[in-house]
Amino acid sequence: MILNVTFWAFSALAVFSGWRVFRADSMVRAAYWLLVSFAAVGVILVLLKAEFLGLILILMMGGEMTIMAVFMVAFMMNPAGLNPMTMVHRNSVAIVAGVVSFLAIAALGVFARFPVARAPVGIDPTRRLGVELLGDSMLVFQTAGVTLLAAMIAAVAISSARGRFGAGDEGSVEPDQLVPDTGAAPERVAGMQPGGPDGPRDPSPMAAGGHT
Amino acid sequence: MNALGVVIAVVSVAFVAAAGVYVTAWIDLVLAQAVAGLEVRPLDALIAPLRWAAATALKARTTTERPDAEAWALAPALLAALAAVGLAAVPLAPGLLAADVANGIVLFGAAMALVVVAVFLQGWSPNSPLPMIGGYRFIAQGLSYEIPLAVVLIAAALPARSLAIAPIVTSQEHLWNVVRQPLGLPLYLMAGLGLAFWGPLALPEGQDLAGGSSLETSGASLLLWRAAQLLVLVAVAAMGTAVFLGGWLGPLLPGAAWMILKTLFLLIPLIATRHFVARVPTERYVVVSWAILIPLSLLDVFAAGIQALMAAR
Fold first, then answer.
1. B142 reaches A (C-beta below 8 A)
2. Helices (H) and strands (E) in chain A, counts
3. Which among A97, A62, A54, A74 has a CA at the least distance from the CA of B150?
4. Which end of chain B is less crowded, N or C, counting CB atoms within 10 A of the terminal residue's CB?
């Protein structure tokens, strides 16, 4: 009884908050509505006896949605995510894509023949999961993991205010590229050249700080 | 799952939580009197938190221009609920715990991971500059303490070969984890201070932000927020006791008494940092955490893994 009520309550919450993601008017709110949706799915996983998966989903999503909100705020022209903005774009394409994918998933749910074999009593799902992750599927998961890690490091490097040559708000220019300050114009042009410190230098007077 | 059991569990967690918060506030006041060179009056310090709570609860709640009212109202309740879930995962004595799950340490980690959300929402939703800076600061802080926290907890679970808390406690019957994994407890306590944004790591609510993320909060919300913060400290100390100090294990006294004594043993130094250690600048904390604390926590888990492999042999 309690189990059923819990299941339906959290299913409804997952769907409702998923809908709210697109009705929210701010990136931060949208991210946290998505978190609510994921957390509700996590609770359903716990009810399905996949306790570890459910809890780890909530654990990961708490940090992940926060980081997503920060990156969205950092990359978009919306100071601190405080300004209202719409979460839906290109509505006609989105409607078609939404209807098609809903029908596809619904068809899968209705027509697919799901296995009816009952799981043996007394298995430890966490242990099974660990054996799977570090056994047969190890290569897949390790490859995906390292790829994701590389992407995360790259994203942090791009958004970091601190570059190789100092803080971004102080110019972050290589030491030998600093032009003596004449008080006329910013002298960071040369440091912004493509090709890095050993790459080709643009000899044009603009790049060398033409104001001299 | 029966309804009566759920009610009993919720009520007992609420009772333990309230007692823990009250004791923490009392210890904090006594320490403040001692540090200020005042005459220490433990009995007056017993009344003072209640007086503050009553006065704060009776004050009107102020508001700001166009806040996110729902998120603002949610933040203190969310923080209190998360801390209570963390506390519920800790067994007071063998078989005596509210959230008897097979993955207790993951439950604690999941609750503590969501603390970032509560503090960020508390700072972001009033639509006010200083609280907002506090909220964003806490994200940087959260990303810095969360990894050491999770890694040292995993290391502590390794010798028990279980993610449930009770086997982790009983695995320390011969040697506590604080000895077996000397890096674990110091790293855990440092991460715990960051989690409770307390003392040297009260960065989202620093005086340089005039109170930061809770600057605009008042009335019953502020009361709940302060209580929830103390409850996070209590949950950190209680879980640290179970995982590193052998929980209920000890001679003569009953298990619950050992659990409470050891929790106080961790709680008092945690509270005292507020009076003895200066607040750390955010950037320095983030750099130290990523460059020193995270590598040390990885060292801790590698050492624990090797020990576990040797023991299995």
1. yes
2. 6, 2
3. A62
4. C
Contact A62 B106 (CB under 8 A): no
Pick B1's closest partner by Cβ from A3, A55, A65: A3
Distances in Å between the alpha carbon of B93 and those of B175, B220, B237, B258, B260? 18, 34, 15, 9, 10
Which residues are CB-neighbours of B79 under 8 A, at least 6 positions away? Answer: B115, B118, B119, B122, B225, B228, B229, B232
Chain A partners within 8 Å of B124 (Cβ): 28, 80-82
Give residues with Cβ within 8 angstroms of A10, minimum separation 6: A40, A41, A43, A44, A47
List chain A residues with CB under 8 Å of B127. 82
Asked if B240 and B192 touch (Cβ cutoff 8 Å), the reply is: yes
pTM for the full model?
A: 0.84
* Intra-chain end-to-end CA distance of chain A, in Å: 81
CA distance A61 to chain B (A): 9
The tens digit of pLDDT for each residue in B12-30 reads 888 889 999 999 999 999 9
Q: Say if B216 is an interface residue toward chain A (CB within 8 Å).
A: no
A2 burial level (CB within 10 Å; 0-12, 13-18, 19+): exposed
In the predicted model, is pLDDT for residue A208 greater than 60?
A: no
Neighboring chain B residues of A63 at a CB cutoff of 8 Å: 113, 116, 142-143, 146
Q: A166 φ, ψ to 5°?
A: 115, -175
Query: Which tokens in the block code for residue A164?
Result: 């190789």
The tens digit of pLDDT for each residue in A59-107 reads 989 888 888 888 888 777 766 666 777 778 888 999 999 999 999 999 9
Residues in chain B: 313
C-beta atoms of A82 and B127 within 8 A: yes
Collect all residues of chain B within an 8 Å Cβ-Cβ radius of residue A80. Answer: 124, 132, 136
Interface size A-B, in CB pairs within 8 Å, comes to 67
Please state the domain extents for chain B.
3-312
What was the ipTM of the complex prediction? Answer: 0.87
Q: Which residues, listed in sequence order, are joined to residue B132 by a DSSP beta bridge?
A: none
Angle at which helix B255-276 crosses helix B184-195, to 10 degrees, equals 70
Segments making up each domain of chain A, as ranges: 1-81, 126-160, 174-212
